[in-house]
Design brief:
Layout lengths: L1 H33 L2 E7 L9 E10 L5 E7 L6 E5 L4 E3 L8 E5 L2 E6 L3 E9 L11 E10 L4 E10 L10 H12 L3 E2 L4 E6 L2 E7 L10 E4 L12 E5 L2 E7 L8 E8 L2 E9 L7 E3 L5 E2 L4 H18 L6 H14 L3 H31 L13 H18 L12 H23 L7 H6 L6 H24 L1 H4 L8 H8 L1 H19 L6 H21 L5 H22 L11 E2 L2 H9 L4 E6 L4 H11 L2 H10 L2 E6 L5 H9 L7 E5 L7 E2 L6 H9 L2
Parallel strand pairs: 6-20, 11-18, 12-18, 21-23, 22-23
Antiparallel strand pairs: 1-2, 2-8, 3-7, 4-9, 5-8, 6-7, 9-10, 12-13, 13-16, 14-17, 15-16, 15-19, 17-18, 22-24, 24-25
Helix pairs in contact: 3-9, 4-7, 4-12, 5-7, 5-9, 6-12, 6-13, 13-14, 17-19
Length: 691
Amino acid sequence: MELRNNGIVTGLWRLALAMVAMGQLALASAHAQSTHIAPKLVAESVVPAPGESTSIALTMTPDEGWHGYWVNGGDAGFGLSVEWNAPEGVSVTPFRYPVPEPLILFGMMNHVYEHPYALLADVRVDPRVARGSDMTLSGVANWLACTDKVCVPEKAVISVKLVAGNGAVSAADRTRFDTWRAALPQPLDRPGRWERRGERVRFAIPLPESVAIDAPYLFAETQDVVDYPAPQTFSRSGDMIVVETRAKGGAEGEIAGLLRLGEGRGLSVRFQPGAVPAAGKAIATTGGRDKTFDIATFFAALGGALVGGLILNLMPCVFPILSLKALSLARSGGDARAAKVEGLAYAAGAVATALLLGGALLGLRAAGEQVGWAFQLQHPLSVLVLLLLTVAITLNLLGTYELPSFGGGQALAEKGGAAGGFWTGALAAFVATPCSGPLLGAALGATLVLPAWAALPIFGGLGLGLALPFLAVGFVPALRQRLPKPGPWMARFRKWMALPMGLTALALGWLLWRQLGSADALAYPLIALAMAIALLWHWGSMQRGDRRGWLLALSALLFAASFGAAAAELASGSRSVAGTGSTYSPDALAKARATGKPVFVYFTADWCLSCKANEAGAINREAVQKAFDKAGVVTLVGDWTNGDPAITRALAEHGRNSVPLYLWYAPGAAEPEILPQILTPGMLVDKAGSQ
């Protein structure tokens, strides 16, 4: 009688399960029609054998423009969860996720899937389950579905019919599941190491050099470890991949992560606390794709670049180049056609150079280099080339030699005018762009968060703003009529214009000495400069009738040899540290803030005249230093003269890619206050007095 009652109970239980399953299937169908990501639960074997396990897959198919999330969704999303209704004797492991993609939306990092994907789990069947038993598996799944504008929490009942059997798997199902398994990250057989240094977190991943890695990205599965949208830098140190990024939170002990090796390939890694080796050879990375295009940010940045480029015409660093343009306009004598041609050529040269510099900057950053705006003056070789160029222009203005564009007939003059205007504009943009004047810092900082196709017009806007005054002279008759007529005065004016150009050459020589760190290191560059002057002197002598061409050839040969030796010497130039205060580093900042005192951090460079003006006129003033001493202000100086990846990262973290940048950390404040790019002594004294 007891056995019969047990049979009735079992039958009623199976009937109830069947009815529940039918209801859940109907509910799942209704939900699937209303969700933006369609779920479907499938099994590799619909007849799993008792005592064994089989794989199940939850396939997720997003609608066009929608995406789902990894187990750790990043800043805003969350992964999938399931409340299982499993029959007795059946257990389900947690889902394993395929390798996701990083996606930036409105400055927040998301770990997503924008295409159909499958989550895999294992179903274990108890050995005591009788063959033929109904093991229909169902559950309620919850997930988040998003576009780049809206997010919707979604829910559906998922179910798959299973019957205890022999565990057979069809060839088609095995192939399908093998494809899904291949998309899962492979577990790394050895643990990695991680450490936190101040505001930075560093990871070491053991990976032989033979393993191909393309556009890597590290996803942190453990919460409170990394600042998700912060840039990640990758390098190889022997058989270790070293990853550095900004820290966030206070995680301790072992943490979990996923290293993406390339499209659809990845490794799951467990990190133990431990020392991480120094960074090695840089590895290119694309970072997170940014689908956000904020039209307001774009136009604000474009406007700032235009106005900032216009203001650059008033900066001392541009004045020597503008003197060349003034001489050119004076030669035109107010002629409408010549002025328009030169104005357009000048604008084309300025815009083209700004675009080339911006494109190079974006390309270097995409390749994993930590560079920022004005990177062209962070290399001593570039400074030497500019020094040689300014000396050549100075000698030309003094009449030591002549360029073809200064004579040779009307046709040649017109041709030279357009070419001369273009190269003058190009030189002005090349020399002027390191001067990050008012409005330019924020405008160029916007290029860090805009897509590359939207960032390039910002750089072009800078070049256009720089050229606007000369375009106005070319196309506004009232301005053009105010130009003086050509006359004998031009010869004297030309020689006077050699003065600011010569001063620029002296400034570049000083910068080169600062970058190299010693006068001895200047030997080869000075020899190359002397040979360049000799070459131009002999060229001028031949133009005045000297027929000793062998002197010109010898000078050219000596210049080429000395320039090659100088270029090799500059590759080993040492770094300089400028300013009043201790040297900036993430560790130094962390220690300074731990003292509980106010901290003033300023990022500068020897080639940045705005920086030097602020230092002389405000930071280094006696009243300011006394106020800082009284308030116990800790000052840290970040010298970007020769480039520094740590400083470049710090600038990027605050939305900038150029100097100057001034940060004020009040005691106990979570984030710094970004001070204006133009400082006054009163402003700094007031900041110190308020602490």
